Amino acid sequence: MITDTHTHLYSEQFDDDRKAMMQRAKNAGVSRFFIPAIDSSYSKSMFQLEKDFPDDVFLMMGLHPTHVQENYLEELAHVKKWIDERHFYAIGEIGIDLYWDKSFLKQQQEAFKTQIQWAKEKKWPIVIHCRDAFDEIFEVLESEKSDDLFGIFHCFTGTKQQAEKAISYNMKLGIGGVVTFKNGKIDQFLNEIELKHIVLETDAPYLAPIPYRGKRNESAYITEVVDKLATIYQLSFDEIAKITTQNSKDIFGI
């Protein structure tokens, strides 16, 4: 059993072949799909995905940092409404992204902190999106540090020191297609990080692994990530799948 802890299966990029894509993933051994939120405009399609695949799909709720704009308070109110109405498996994806635009940094920090506090109240994990913002992310995590703060550092692409720091805040490292890239760098030190700190992800339809790089990613391609980790940790494919799935259960509680 393989768990994809981060996949945007509701993306319009899958509208033409979603059912076939899900079947390909299941044929590849993927049986658990955790679905991060982006903003309110995606909620309807996210809930439809859950309705269509009730045994396989596990939803998160949150406001993605690149979607923190002038209306971010309305978007946060949407998140709060839904987390008070029903169960989600995490608050995510949330965080700080300074790659595209730095003008909303203050609002991103506020939204990140607010959503962390909601997660702690619910005793739910958080799923962090970080791009060009490790210092800013760690500053917020330090201010919110507690036993109730835990989750996944999605699409981890930092250094060994940053990995260790993320782990110190009760975060697992979400490892996906980047680990297969020649310039991905994380493969150079990952064997020094215990496997108990690792979960698998695709971030589909983005960041397809080698040999699919540049194409639409899908959850079936997670086997390329498992193969790479099997080489890095010198374990079998099945051992990587089993251990990382157990790690995901420890985080999501299911």
UniProtKB/TrEMBL annotation:
Q: Which UniProt keywords apply?
A: Hydrolase, Metal-binding
Q: At which positions is a divalent metal cation 2 bound?
A: H129, H154
Q: Does the keyword Metal-binding apply?
A: yes
Please give the InterPro entries that the UniProt record associates with this protein. Answer: DNase_TatD-rel_CS, Metal_Hydrolase, TatD-like, TatD/YcfH-like
Q: Which Pfam families match?
A: TatD_DNase
Which Gene Ontology cellular-component terms appear in the entry? cytosol
A GO molecular-function term, please? hydrolase activity, acting on ester bonds
Give a yes or no for keyword Translocase in this entry.
Answer: no
Q: Which CDD domains match?
A: TatD_DNAse (cd01310)
Q: Where does a divalent metal cation 1 bind?
A: H6, H8, E93, D203
State the similarity comment. Answer: Belongs to the metallo-dependent hydrolases superfamily. TatD-type hydrolase family.
Q: What is this protein called?
A: Hydrolase TatD
